[in-house]
Amino acid sequence: MAHFAKPAEGSWTEHYPELGTGPVSYEDSISKDHYELERRAIFARTWQNVGRVEQLPRPGSYFTKELAAAGTSVVVVRGTDGVVRAFHNICRHRGNKLVWNDYPREEVAGTCRQFTCKYHGWRYDLQGACTFVQQEDEFFDLDKGDYGLAPVQCEVWEGFIFVNPDPKNTVGLAEYLGDMGKELTGYPFGEMTQVYKYRAEVGSNWKLFIDAFAEFYHAPVLHAKQAVADESRKLQGVGFEALAYKLDGPHGMVSSWGGMSPPKDLDMVKPIERVLRSGLFGPWDRPAIDGLDPLPPGVNPARSKVWGVDSFVFFPNFMLLIWAPGWYLTYHYWPTSYNSHIFEGTLCFVPPANATERLRQELTAVTFKEYALQDGNTLEATQMMIESRAVAEFPLNDQEILLRQLHKTARDYVAAYQEDPERRPAPLRVAAS
Ligand code: FES
Ligand SMILES: [Fe+2]
């Protein structure tokens, strides 16, 4: 018996007939060949979020991002004109990596007036133009104007900086993010500049960790020990149900209830949570800033009174979680091989006004870490066994609709690429019935 309304078809999954309801092959998560195709069909030609504008506060602020799956490293920089641009992180003279510090594989950030290559000293300004060539006379008809840094398409949506490594891409970022992006416009992301960040190397395919964060079916079981005892017992008895799911092209979202802030029964929370008025769902008291009331239409789309958190999956590798108490969380999954990826979890709050507010945020951040470690724990165990191919297909339930969509979308991108590597399909759309 459903507590929340489902579509007329009887399930969220059947509302999107193209998804099917049959068992799903996980060959896409264990095949080296499929991963090599994903690199070309997906990571070399879709928009990927690499950071926030707050990381580039003034002209000359820059950071680098390793895009292993796309096969490049980019440097993202704010120019003297204030515009944010991205370039392949390669020197035009003989290919040295341009921006790095002690270790060439590590990401770096900073502020500078120009970029100087460590090898022979060629220089580039903040707009990417080559401004200095050591012993220029020794070259043959060299025109510096022809040797600017190789640009990468770069656009900003609501303060999130995206790059698309495909020089032939013709789909703008706003079009790519579709209605799901449009309906989040106006959320006060820019006010939430207090950042707590985790990074981990995970021994699983990138899609498996998205799987783990895109369903709550596992929550009462996997997180049983840590969840508030009463909440967990309740969930194990009746199971989890979401308020709503929405699919929009390659992207999707799940809206969930969450009665934790503040919890109804204060005896049920840990003493430190009671004292600080904070926990996994964030500090219990919403910050007093504009933009949270009313929320943009994309947030809590069911307009439910018991709403707790929305999880958005922007294909391919960017998740955005917006929490009822007025903060947000992002997940990024950067593939490094068919069975490994780098995971980043970033919590963003309105800057604390005093030590108590800071402690509230810290408590949320460490609690999040414990949950994420539990989530991460099953991934290598899963990867190991699906690689055995002893079982090839897996039944996904209605709550696992976003997983069904993610794997189908990845397979569809690969299939379209195999059909015609030159064709750039419009963002693939999954139609509702
Ligand atoms: S490779 Fe950069 S100056 Fe020679
Ligand atoms: Fe979890």
Q: Explain this structure to me?
A:
There is one protein chain. This protein is α+β, with helices and mostly antiparallel strands. It is built from 8 helices and 19 strands. The strands form 4 sheets. A 7-stranded antiparallel β-sheet has the order 2-11-10-5-4-3-6. The radius of gyration is 23 Å and the shape is globular. The model has no long low-confidence stretch (mean pLDDT 93).
Topology:
Blueprint: E1 24-25, H1 32-43, E2 48-52, E3 61-67, E4 72-78, E5 84-88, E6 109-111, E7 115-116, E8 123-124, E9 130-132, E10 151-157, E11 160-164, H2 173-182, E12 194-202, H3 206-213, H4 219-222, H5 229-238, E13 244-248, E14 251-257, H6 271-276, E15 307-314, E16 318-323, E17 327-337, E18 340-349, H7 355-386, E19 393-394, H8 401-419
Antiparallel strand pairs: 1-19, 2-11, 3-4, 3-6, 4-5, 5-10, 7-8, 8-9, 10-11, 12-18, 13-14, 14-15, 15-16, 16-17, 17-18
Helix pairs in contact: 1-8, 3-7
The protein binds FE2/S2 (inorganic) cluster (FES) and fe (ii) ion.
The site of fe (ii) ion has 6 residues, from helix 4 and helix 7.
In short:
This protein is α+β, with helices and mostly antiparallel strands and 433 residues long. The chain has helices at 32-43, 173-182, 206-213, 219-222, 229-238, 271-276, 355-386, 401-419, and strands at residues 24-25, 48-52, 61-67, 72-78, 84-88, 109-111, 115-116, 123-124, 130-132, 151-157, 160-164, 194-202, 244-248, 251-257, 307-314, 318-323, 327-337, 340-349, 393-394.
**What about the largest sheet?**
7 strands, antiparallel
Assign an overall shape: globular
How big a fraction of the residues is strand? 15-25%
What is the count of β-strands? 19
Bound molecules: FE2/S2 (inorganic) cluster, fe (ii) ion
Helix-strand pattern: EHEEEEEEEEEEHEHHHEEHEEEEHEH
Classify the helix fraction into a percent range: 10-25%
The mean pLDDT is: 93
Weakly predicted, low-confidence segments:
none
Strand order of the largest sheet: 2-11-10-5-4-3-6
Number of helices: 8
Q: Report how far the terminal alpha carbons are from each other.
A: 23 Å
Structural class: alpha+beta
Radius of gyration: 23 Å
